[in-house]
Amino acid sequence: MLPSVQTGYGTPFNNMDLGVHDYIIYSLDHSISIQQQLHHHIVPLAYPTASMLNIAAMQLVYSQHAQASPQSMVSSGGMFSHLSRTDRILTLSALENLEIDLYVLPSPFHNNAGMVKYVTDAVNRFSLFGYYSEWPAYGSTRLCPPGDRQLEFFPLTWQQVGYPGVSLGYRDFRGFLITMAEVRT
């Protein structure tokens, strides 16, 4: 078991509970829009994406390109959670390279190569954003609307990369640091 870390805001932070999976689910359900005729609609994609990952994992296991373990990494998890880390990356790669039968995927991925590639890439990006952003530090407010979230402690990942933290002056334009005359010389 990994130890807790004191984070500067007074709240200990368990290294195992970054909540990146919550960020991925939240982002899939709230951040991707699909155009239907003339309108863009936010479509919850967490459940269909999980189904797509499980179906792709099953195809790789049945074709003997991946091996499922008898125990799931997540209680009541699907086939994707039964794969090793290497085989999960192989599954994402197979989806990204469209090496999976697109006709058996759930809607909106069914025979939609662009959507499969876009969401597979988004899952990779959301993983990084969830890990390196302030998401873990929102603590109990992380699933609230963005305007209602509060930083409850200094994120461990900010400490790891040496980020100094929030500064109220970052948003202000304070002029150019050099003049045009300096650029010409």
Q: Name the average pLDDT.
A: 82
Number of strands: 4
Overall helicity = 25-40%
Separation of the first and last Cα atoms: 59 Å
Order of strands across the biggest sheet? 1-2
Task: Give helix and strand order, one letter per element, not per position.
Answer: EEHEEHHHHH
- The shape is globular
Determine the number of helices (DSSP H or I, runs of at least 4 residues): 6
Low-pLDDT segments: 1-15
Indicate how many domains the architecture comprises: 1
What can be said about the biggest beta sheet? 2 strands, antiparallel
The helix-and-strand class reads mainly alpha
- Give the strand content: 5-15%
Estimated radius of gyration: 21 Å
Word description of this protein:
The chain is mainly α. The chain has one domain. It is built from six helices and four strands. The protein has helices spanning 20-30, 46-62, 85-96, 113-132, 156-161, 180-184, and strands at 4-6, 12-14, 33-36, 39-42. The strands form two sheets. It has a two-stranded antiparallel ribbon. Strands 3-4 form a two-stranded antiparallel sheet. Helix 1 crosses helix 4 and helix 2 (46-62) packs across helix 3. The longest helix has 20 residues, at 113-132. Mean pLDDT is 82; it is low at 1-15.
SSE inventory with pairings:
Blueprint lengths: L3 E3 L5 E3 L5 H11 L2 E4 L2 E4 L3 H17 L22 H12 L16 H20 L23 H6 L18 H5 L1
Antiparallel strand pairs: 1-2, 3-4
Helix pairs in contact: 1-4, 2-3
In short:
This protein is mainly α. Helices cover 38% and strands 8% of the residues.
